[in-house]
What we know:
Layout: E1 2-7, E2 13-16, H1 19-27, E3 31-37, H2 41-50, H3 55-62, E4 69-72, E5 76-87, E6 93-103, E7 106-111, H4 116-124, H5 134-169, H6 173-205, H7 209-212, H8 218-282, H9 297-319
Parallel strand pairs: 3-7
Antiparallel strand pairs: 1-2, 1-3, 4-5, 5-6, 6-7
Amino acid sequence: MIRTQLLTAHGEHIHGSTELIERWRSEGSGYIWIDLLGEDSAIEKKFLLSMGCHPLAVEDVQRFRHPPKTETFDDYTLILYRGITEFNKDLTIQQMTIALFAGDRCLISCHPRNSMGINYYWENAHRENLLVSPGLLASRIMRFSIGRYLEAILEFEPSLNELEDSMQEKPNDEVMRELIAYQSRLRKLRRIFSYHEKLVTNLLKDIPQRLIDEDGDIEHALQDLFERCERLHGLTTMYYEICGDLINGYLSITSHQLNNTMKVLTVITAIFVPLTFIAGIYGMNFDNMPELHATYGYFYTLGAMLIIAAGFGIVAYKKWL
C-alpha cells in the first residue's frame, strides 16, 4: 500500500495516494510524505528508483535484517533502523526494519508491517508542522520507536530486582535458567541498541547540510535522540552485566557448597584410611601372627583405632573444618 500526504505551498493539506506525487512534482513546491507499507519488493524497488533513491540504498533497504545504518546520498539521507511490533515482559521481541529517506521537500518511509511510530506521526505530523522538515520528522519517528524500547526495558527492571532477591535468599536452578535466558535476550538487544547509538552518532558528527537548511531544529532533535539511544544502550548493558554477576554469584555459591562437601568427604576418607590399613593387616590369616591369639588383642586394636580416629578428627576440625 502506498499512501501520501501533501502540504502545498498555499498551506493546503491533502491525504491521498500516488496521484499526489505527480501534483507535487508538477508544482515544484510543497512537501510530501510517501509511506510504503508492505509493498512487494519488486514494486517497492521500482518506485524508490523512480523517486531518485540510490540503487545501493534500495538494496540495503530490501536486504534481510540489514544492520541499522545511515548514509547520505545526493538527493536523500537514508536512516535504516529496527522498529518493534511486539515487546514482551520476558524480553522476547518481534522487530522489523524501517527505512526513512529524508530528501528535499520529501520523506519516504518503507516498512513491511504497521509501525506505531509512523502511524502516530501520520496523524500528527501536520498538526505539529513537521512536514516542512523531512529530516526532523524522520528523527521524531525514530525517537518514538526508541521511546517504546525504553519503556519496555524500564518495565523489566522490577522483574530483575525480584530475580536478584530470589538469588540472594534462595538460589536454585530454576532462577539460574531464567537468568541465562534473560542474559541471552539482553545480549541481542544490546547489539541492536549499539547499532542505533552509532547511527545517531554518525548523523551528529556530520549532519547533512540538507537537513540543517530545513525549517526545523535538527541539531537539538538529533542530540535528544542520541541521549535516548545512549541511555537505552547503557541500561541494557547494565542489566546484562547484572544478570552475568548473578549467574557468576550462583556458580560461586554452588562451587563453595561443593568444596565444603568435598572437604567433609576428604576428612572422612583421611580418618578411615589408617583404620582400613589396620583392619587390612589384622584381617590376614597367617599362622605366625603373634597378636592373632592374644587374649585382649581385639580390644587393644579397637582402642587404637578409636584413638587414631579421634586424633584425626580433632586435627581436621581445628585446621580444616
